Amino acid sequence: MGAWLVDRRRTTGVLLGLALVVLTALTLVPTSRDLERGCFVEWSVPTLGAVELVANVILFVPVVLLLGVLLRRPVVALLGASGASLLIEAVQAVVPALGRSCSTNDWVSNTIGAALGALLALVALKLHHRFSGDRGPELVSADAS
């Protein structure tokens, strides 16, 4: 599907916009929870039994896949998503009215999901290149070379 989207920038952009709306709703829409602490510093690797951590991994996969295909730069999409996740956690930490808590585990899980999305985008771009003769994905910006 990702390889099919490479030449369909408008469709990819619309899907990315929808994915960002979902991501924003799931991370920044206020809840009615009362929290004792605003932020947790913890380091756990997501496992199948940890539903919230796995959900945080899955949350960023489509966003980075779509952004990586749209920009044709999966690594840039990965770095941007990891930074966005950090920003989301910071907002959750400093705005208690959201009823959300920040956690380093959430950032780690989101970044793992972003890495999976970047990997899928890279595969999609390579497949597109193979079957269309288009140039392959740019892993770094042209300014860096």
Order of SSEs:
HHEHHEH
Mean model confidence by pLDDT: 83
Spatial shape: elongated
Q: Helicity level, as a percent range?
A: 55-70%
Assembly annotation: single chain
Secondary-structure class: mainly alpha
User: Based on DSSP secondary structure assignment, what is the total number of beta strands?
Assistant: 2
- Beta-strand proportion: under 5%
Radius of gyration: 17 Å
Poorly predicted runs of 5 or more residues: 141-145
* Number of domain modules: 1
Total DSSP helices: 5
Largest sheet: 2 strands, parallel
Strand neighbour order, sheet with most strands: 1-2
Distance between the termini: 30 Å
How does this structure look, described?
This is VanZ family protein. Keywords: Membrane, Transmembrane, Transmembrane helix. It holds the Pfam family VanZ. It comes from Nocardioides daphniae. By secondary structure, the protein is mostly helical. The protein has one domain. It is 66% helix and 3% strand. The chain has five helices and two strands. The protein has helices at residues 2-5, 9-28, 51-71, 74-94, 104-132; strands spanning 39-40, 102-103. A two-stranded parallel sheet has the order 1-2. Helix 3 (51-71) runs parallel beside helix 5 (104-132) and helix 4 (74-94) packs antiparallel against helix 5. The relative contact order is 0.21.
